[in-house]
Amino acid sequence: MPIDNVRVSKSGRDKLIRLKAKTGIQNWNTLCRWAFCMSLAEESIPPDANIKLDSPIEMTWRTFGGTYHEIYDALLRERCLRDGFELTDEVLELQFKLHLHRGIGYFFGDREITDISGLMSVVVG
Question: Which CATH number fits domain 5-124: 3.20.20.70, 3.40.1160.10, 1.10.3720.10, 1.10.1220.160?
Answer without folding.
Answer: 1.10.1220.160
